[in-house]
Each structure stands twice: as structure tokens, then as C-alpha cells.
Amino acid sequence: MKNLLVVSNLHVYFETPAGLVRANNGLNLHLEEGCNLGIMGESGCGKTVLVYTLLGLQQPGKIITGSILFSGRELVNLPEAELNHIRGRQIALIPQNQSTALNPLLKVGEQIGEVCVNLNRPDIRLEGARRLLSDLGLGDIHSVEHILKSYPHQLSGGMRQRVLTAMALLSEPDLLVADEPTTALDANTRTTTLNILKEASKRTSLLVISHDLPALKTLCPKLGVMYAGRIVEYGDTLSLMSNPLHPYSRLLMKCQQAGDYLDIPLTGFESRDLLGDNEGCSFAPFCPQATGICFKELPLEVCLDNSRVVCHLYTQSGMKLC
Ligand SMILES: Nc1ncnc2c1ncn2[C@@H]1O[C@H](COP(=O)(O)OP(=O)(O)OP(=O)(O)O)[C@@H](O)[C@H]1O
Ligand code: NI
């Protein structure tokens, strides 16, 4: 299948008073057209930085090198005017926090109208939004009308999620990025959100960032595990879950089985660890299988059947480099 997104050796650094924060540090990933990809990793490993970099929304003070090919087009260093054309149109975002993502002072219908104007698509206007909202699980047209005339605070979490998803889908994007779509939701809203995203994935490819492994299992056939600014393992979601290869992935899966929540750092890894220019593997200090080389040399990516893993355990065994 053709790749929609190929990220190669992406570095996103921030200059801060404490030093250089290496938030994405040699990150590789690819997403095939029509195939959803999930990314999981504990808090602070650089997931949201990746999302904002894909959308060209990083703040001043950052240094970005590497390559982001989207539909064959290089996004790194693309002029703002051209990025503007891609952002929100070909790549859309459902932001992390649905309760603050909508303007509390404007009715939902007005906000959707604004999106249409920004997209320069007056043709889709509210008619398209009505259809989308109804396709996203509001079969009853009166409910749709009710939503359009409501202020965000008058809606339930599930309804706000439908509105945000409908707004993101209005431009018929090729890629929809959802940053932590189920975090901090009650069980009902979480189920609704998963159904909405499933419906959305009939129209577009999804990149889902989440701590919620069961949600990723439901939505994404492919999974990337992220640690300290890198994807350390990539593969089929089901096989990665049942047979993780990277020692960090093994730890993640074990914690999930035990029901631990990944907002709590599970390795003792802290943001300040992104400050050092590690010679070796960032996970080595926490890795039960680390050997001398892990502290000295950065492991290269190794390709196994359907997966990729960045770990000396596999480079040492003579497996094929990607
Ligand atoms: N503009 C910035 N300037 C300096 N450091 C930044 C900036 N943006 C992000 N960072 C740092 O980059 C690191 C990664 O942050 P990021 O928000 O991507 O984490 P995350 O994986 O999304 O975590 P969470 O799961 O908690 O959302 C953090 O240490 C953060 O403090
Ligand atoms: Ni985040």
C-alpha cells in the first residue's frame, strides 16, 4: 500500500533556559493510506510535539530537522502560506481537550460556520455539518438542530466530541490526527468517542495518540511505541500487544495488563532526561536487559517480518537493518 505519511529522522528541539529539550529525537514512522496508526508512550515522551510539528504549529524557539513527507510532499520548512493550505484541509486535528477546544461564547452552529469560512468552502456550510453530525451518531435531525443552536457548555461530552470531529471532517482531510481522544472521559463518553472515530475512519486515515491501549486496539491496525522522542517499536497492533519485542514495549504491555494508568511515568523517566545528549539508548538506565553497548551506542532500527524495533538486542543478533 502507498504511504500517506513518512516521517524520517525527525528532530524537534526547544531552546530553554535549562538547556536544549530534545522532544523528538530521531523519530521515524510511516502511515499507509487507508490504515490507521496508533502511537502510545508515557507522558512527556513527545507525542503532542510530534502532532504540532506535523501540523506546522510549533512555536518560535524550536529547531526542526529531518523529513515529513505527506502525500509525497515535504512539510519541513514548507512556507507558511503553503502549510496553511494543508493544515486543517488535508491534515485535520481533533485537539487534546474537548472541553476547552470550543469557544464557550459562540453557538456551535456559528463555530461550524466559521470553520467553513476559514476553509473557503461556503458551499459546505451548515448543510454539510448537519449531515456529518447526523452520520456521527445523531440520527434524529431535531437533535442536530438542537446542537447547532447550543452553546458548548449546554452539550454533553459526547456531543462536544461529535461537534469537534464533524468540524475536523468538514474539509474531507486525508489524515485526521486525534491527540488523546479518550483521556479523562467517563466510560459512556469514551465509548461514544470510539464509535465516532470508527465512523470517521471510513472517510479518512487516522493517527491516534493515546495512553488507552484498548482504544488503540479497537481503532488502529498498526501501532508505534514511543519512548523519549523516538518510535522504539512499530508493528501490527495485535502482534505488538501479544508479543512485544522492545524491552520498553514489554514493560508497557505488562503495566496495561496490570491495569496501571500510563499518565504515571513507569520508568522513572522525566522530562529532564530529554535534556541530555545521550550517547546510548535512552531506555538503557531502566532496561532489565541492558548491556554495556546500550549505554554507549545508539541502536539502529532493525526490520523483522512486519515490525521494526530500535534495540541492541536485535542489532546484535545480526538481523536486517531497515
Ligand atoms: N514549546 C516548548 N518549549 C520547551 N519544551 C517543550 C515545548 N513543548 C513541549 N516541550 C517539552 O517536550 C516534552 C514532550 O512534551 P509533549 O507535550 O509532546 O509530551 P506528551 O508525550 O504529549 O505527553 P502527555 O502524554 O502528557 O500529553 C516535554 O518535556 C515538554 O516539556
Ligand atoms: Ni500530549
Short description:
With 322 residues, the chain is an alpha/beta fold. 34% of the residues lie in helices and 24% in strands.
Give a written overview of the molecule.
The protein has 322 residues and is of the alpha/beta class. It folds into two domains: 3-90 and 171-315, P-loop containing nucleotide triphosphate hydrolases (Rossmann fold); 102-170, no CATH class. The chain has helices at residues 47-54, 80-86, 98-101, 108-118, 125-135, 141-148, 157-169, 187-200, 213-219, 237-242, 247-257, 292-296, 312-315, and strands at 3-16, 19-32, 37-40, 62-70, 73-74, 91-94, 175-179, 205-209, 222-227, 230-236, 301-304, 307-310. It has an eight-stranded mixed sheet, with helices on both faces. A hairpin with a 2-residue loop joins strand 11 and strand 12 (307-310). Helix 7 runs parallel beside helix 8 (187-200). The longest helix has 14 residues, at 187-200. The chain is globular and about 65 Å long. The chain starts with a strand and ends in a 7-residue tail after the last helix. It binds adenosine-5'-triphosphate and nickel (II) ion.
